[in-house]
Amino acid sequence: MYGWRSRIGLIVPSSNTTMESEFWKMAPKGVSVHTARMNLTDVTEEALIKMESYAKAAAMRLADAAVDIIMYGCTSGSLLKGKGYDRQISQELERHSGIKTVTTSTAVLEALKELEISKLAVATPYIDDVNAKEKQFLEENGIEIVRMEGLGLIKNIEIGKQEPQTAYNLAKRIYTPNADGIFISCTNFRTIEVIDLLEMDLGVPVITSNQASMWFALRNLGIKEKYKEYGALMKERL
């Protein structure tokens, strides 16, 4: 049986082609990943808010698979309405599914707290309007944004086509010495291959949406694992 140790339920935008693959790569032995989707093609504020209306049905489908936790796997979609929106989504989906539910945005905040990061450089694939919402959310949660830059991509399918070196180059470009950490945002942005390289080259912790999501899911499940990659968060804080 797959998932004999634990089962992670994953809710992703329908056009997300990255998070499942990165979750399977990071999943410990005996931990399985089961996915449901919410309709989304464009990463805009309007589309992300509409996407949330599909989340309840997705959570109920995952409940049919008897998953042990549900991860709402969309960074921007779980922070658009400001501080507390991530927890609001979790609580609502948990009421409907009966299963512990967390969001990527919550996972990122917990990872920043775990690594004691308060001054952050942020790299995203998003347009400016979405970046502004993310900046507001992080600042409302006590994080100082020292620099932030996006790729300006609207089509989520295009975000998923970006190679890992795109995330690496963007993160290096936005890094500044007064930042005590880097966050690479978006569950559809391919990142896990470059986390260790960035930490080695820049000398600061690197958090990504999918890495933080997996870390937080495993923490909630009580799964202990000895990682040799995927950054200080996974190697030292699990």
Write a short abstract of this structure:
With 238 residues, the protein is of the alpha/beta class. The chain contains eleven helices and eight strands. Helix content is 44%, strand content 18%.
Word description of this protein:
The protein has 238 residues and is an alpha/beta fold. The chain has 2 domains: 6-104 and 211-225, Rossmann fold, CATH 3.40.50.12500; 107-208, Rossmann fold (3-Layer(aba) Sandwich). It is 44% helix and 18% strand. It has 11 helices and 8 strands. A 4-stranded parallel β-sheet has the order 2-1-3-4, sandwiched between helices. A 4-stranded parallel β-sheet has the order 6-5-7-8, with helices on both faces. Helix 9 links the parallel strand 7 (181-184) and strand 8. The longest helix has 13 residues, at 85-97. The protein is globular. The chain starts with 5 loop residues before the first strand and ends with a helix.
- How would a crystallographer describe the biggest sheet? 4 strands, parallel
CATH architecture term of the largest domain: 3-Layer(aba) Sandwich
Q: What best-fitting shape do the alpha-carbon axes yield?
A: globular
Q: What's the helix-strand series?
A: EHEHHEHEHEHEHHEHEHH
**Number of domains in the coordinates?**
2
Span between N and C termini? 25 Å
* Estimated radius of gyration: 16 Å
Which percent range fits the helix content? 40-55%
Q: Structural class of the secondary elements?
A: alpha/beta
User: What is the oligomer described by this structure?
Assistant: single chain
The first-level CATH class of the largest domain is given as: Alpha Beta
By DSSP (H or I, 4+ residues per run), the number of helices equals 11
- At CATH level 3, the topology of the largest domain is Rossmann fold
Count of distinct strands: 8
Query: What is the strand content?
Result: 15-25%
Output the strand order for the largest sheet: 2-1-3-4
Mean pLDDT comes to: 98
